[in-house]
Amino acid sequence: MTRDLDTALLRALAAVARHGSINRAAAELGHSQPALSLQLRKLEQHCGQTLLLRSTRGVNLTAAGRALLPFAERIVSLAEQMLPAEAAIAAAPCRVGLIEDVVSRHLPQVLADFSRTHTQLGLEVRVEPGRELSAAYRAGELDLLIANPRLCGLEEQPLWSLSCALPWLAAGGAWPDGAELPLVLFTAPCSWRNAMLQALELAGQRYRVVFESSSLLAVQAALEAGLGVGALLPDAAGDKLRPLPSGRLPDLPAVPLALYRRTERAENRGLELLSRLFFRELSRLAA
């Protein structure tokens, strides 16, 4: 017997994951809180698993919920791609600001999925340090911004936020020789750099800086070349870069990322889709 799954149930899960709150997710979807809760219970019954952990502090996904989320976002996106794009929004391009950390591995898939639905809609993407992007956002030069909420200086509530793990990486995952740990760092000022140095000093680990750059590509290249040890988001790990053995170095604090969207363009379907596509991609890095 075939058990077809209503995409509305998947859309409900994705909205709750973005907001961490059933009430805020219900407001976004235009549902009442009881109606959305019923949809979530139906989805859990359909899957035969608990997908959400509810508490007074909000709602979090279980391991089963996190595993389902990328598929839910993908299915919802594909369903919306079947609908004709709105011709009226073609005159207003989406102006997006991104910090470099989220560009290299995540932007291609977001752009591919977005372009299938909004072929006539222009995109203007700026990649700069978070503080510069925040100034542009406050000046009305950006419609959507992804940045570190602790550093960007924006007082408004983000549309969504999440925390990404920050693992120690090295070429082949090999522990370097020598008494001093060779470090590959981002140029100051950088919150990742500060976290790495503070953790090593508190742990009493001797180190020396062998390479530093303001460029993500340059830092990654230095790590892949085996110059030393550094820390990047989990998706940087692959055939060349691998995590160091657990316990060799102190754990680093998670990196917060948040998406801000201008309220005056809240009804723009293009920006709404971009917001969800970025959440789908970045939620895979959640700590």
Task: Describe the structure in brief.
The protein has 287 residues and is an alpha/beta fold. The chain has helices at residues 7-19, 22-29, 33-47, 63-81, 107-117, 130-138, 191-203, 216-224, 269-282; strands spanning 52-55, 58-61, 94-98, 123-127, 144-147, 160-164, 168-171, 181-186, 207-213, 230-231, 241-243, 255-261. The protein folds into three domains: 7-81, Arc Repressor Mutant, subunit A (Orthogonal Bundle); 88-161 and 256-285, D-Maltodextrin-Binding Protein, domain 2, CATH 3.40.190.10; 168-253, Periplasmic binding protein-like II (D-Maltodextrin-Binding Protein, domain 2).
- The outline comes out as globular
Total domains: 3
What is the CATH architecture descriptor of the largest domain? 3-Layer(aba) Sandwich
The number of helical segments is: 9
Characteristics:
287 residues, D-Maltodextrin-Binding Protein, domain 2, 3 domains, five-stranded mixed β-sheet, three-stranded antiparallel β-sheet, 9 helices, globular
Structural description of this entry:
The chain is α/β, with parallel strands linked by helices and 287 residues long. It folds into three domains: 7-81, Winged helix-like DNA-binding domain superfamily/Winged helix DNA-binding domain (Arc Repressor Mutant, subunit A, Orthogonal Bundle); 88-161 and 256-285, 3-Layer(aba) Sandwich (D-Maltodextrin-Binding Protein, domain 2); 168-253, Periplasmic binding protein-like II (D-Maltodextrin-Binding Protein, domain 2), CATH 3.40.190. The chain has helices at residues 7-19, 22-29, 33-47, 63-81, 107-117, 130-138, 191-203, 216-224, 269-282, and strands at residues 52-55, 58-61, 94-98, 123-127, 144-147, 160-164, 168-171, 181-186, 207-213, 230-231, 241-243, 255-261. The strands form four sheets. A five-stranded mixed β-sheet has the order 4-3-5-12-6, sandwiched between helices. The chain has a three-stranded antiparallel β-sheet with strand order 10-7-11. It has a two-stranded antiparallel sheet with strand order 1-2. The longest helix is centred in the first third of the chain and has 19 residues, at 63-81. 34% of the residues are buried.
